[in-house]
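Q: Hi! First time doing this. I have a protein sequence and I read that you can turn it into a structure. Is that right? Here it is:
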Amino acid sequence: MSSPELVPGLPPAAQSTVEAFVRTLSGEASIGIFLADPEGHTLYLNDRLRRIAGLPIPATAGESWLSALFPEDYALINAEWTAAISDHRSFAREFRFRRSDGSIRWVMTEAFPLRADGGALTGYVGMVRDVTPRQSAMEALHASEERYRSLILLSPHAILVHAEGNILFVNQAGLRLFGIASAQDIEGRPLSECFSDEFIHGLGTPENVRSSEPSAPLDQRFIRPDGTPVEVEMVSAPIVFDGHHAVQVIITDITTRKTTEAQLQQGKKNAAMATLAGGIAHEFNNCLTAILGFSDLTLPLLVPDSRAHGHVQQVILASKRARDLVTQMLMFGRQGNNARQPVSLDILLKETLRVLRGKLPEIITLREWIPGATKPVFADPTQIHHVCVSLLAHAEQAMRMSGGILEVRLDNIELSGPASGYDLPLPPGHYVRLIVSDSGEGISSGVQPRLFDPFLMSGDGDRTTEVGLSGLPHIVSEHGGTFRATSTVAQGTTIEVYLPAISHPCPAVGTEPGHKDSPTLSDRKEFLAEHEKER
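A: Yes, that's right. Below is the predicted 3D structure, encoded as structure tokens:
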């Protein structure tokens, strides 16, 4: 039986040429080619297909391209190929070949029915393309996208992706920052529904974020749904997200940093004011020395009980009062040498209370319990004065609105271990105890551990109040003492300070820390004599 004519009507010599052409084309093609009969049995495989599938060259009897399928793909591909043969239709599918050496190749296979002039099915011709490089690239891209999603999902920074005015993605950190419950509540929504126009402008767009480099950091503020303002820093960069050009914005919460910077700036201002106050105090102290000196020289020259004598006495009293204020200014300016020395707390505290009494509002009653001289403590007078002033200011602040009673107690106490009834982290010994109590609002037990934070939320939770106690535990701890604070809501707060007393009494400083005592009368006379010579 002769072979069918490839092109009907051609002479036998031409038919042979066409057949040689088809076989040569099939053998040299850059894609795999196979022929199958109407039942789907393989009739021919070109060399390219054999190399792709790892089949032997030359051909072996009864071979089929299906025999090279990856085992996990065989059942599905064989069923689909059988169904296509049964329905006399085309077949197209991506699958894997496993070669005899164990390597895997991804291929794209298309097969089409061959029909005679009368329309009868005569077989199938198939084309097989090796798509392994493309598949590897797709797998690498998919792995890269998975890594990207894992990184942004776990990132501590808020990450937002947007395009065409819509939010495409927000990670968990972003949901927490924006105060959003779940991604479904924000993804897919327009930016204008979630943020202000100013904030949206800072997010950038694919048109104005053209460079592959991230934009310069931009500081912005936005308001959470609960009304809380948040300071953020945003960096935008263009990306391709799910096949579309988009903008990725990394958002960092810098509220704490801004607060710290503001506190640092305020600290610098306070330091400058302290330096200025110290300088003014020193100059004013020089003037007071002259006033007190000339007054002391004038007083003996006047008739006792005369009006002029009384006037000069009033000048001396006012000058001493001014000298006390200068002492306070010098303490505020921290002009002392910060050297520790024996300090009589009773004298220092009485002086502080005398200044405070004149500034307290009428609705606050001051009660002081200082029975007598207390044992001296070895301390930096400036720092201890700061502790006293801060505790008193805190108590006053707690009662400024409602009024109440401010009690100050100072006494000596001996701690002999747990048996003494005081559960304190202190070794046994003699201590000086300062107790400052107020009858203000008080604070709850949950807030008490944060009493010495720089800022403390008030009882209603709506505002933040500066309490000024943040550095006190450190000062007291450095002096070998400790703090104990107790508070009850609506009843007030009591703060106790324990400082170790000096075992052997010695001369102690009680007023201006780090400075000599006030000039004596002989010192003033010498100053005035020098002043007269200069004149």
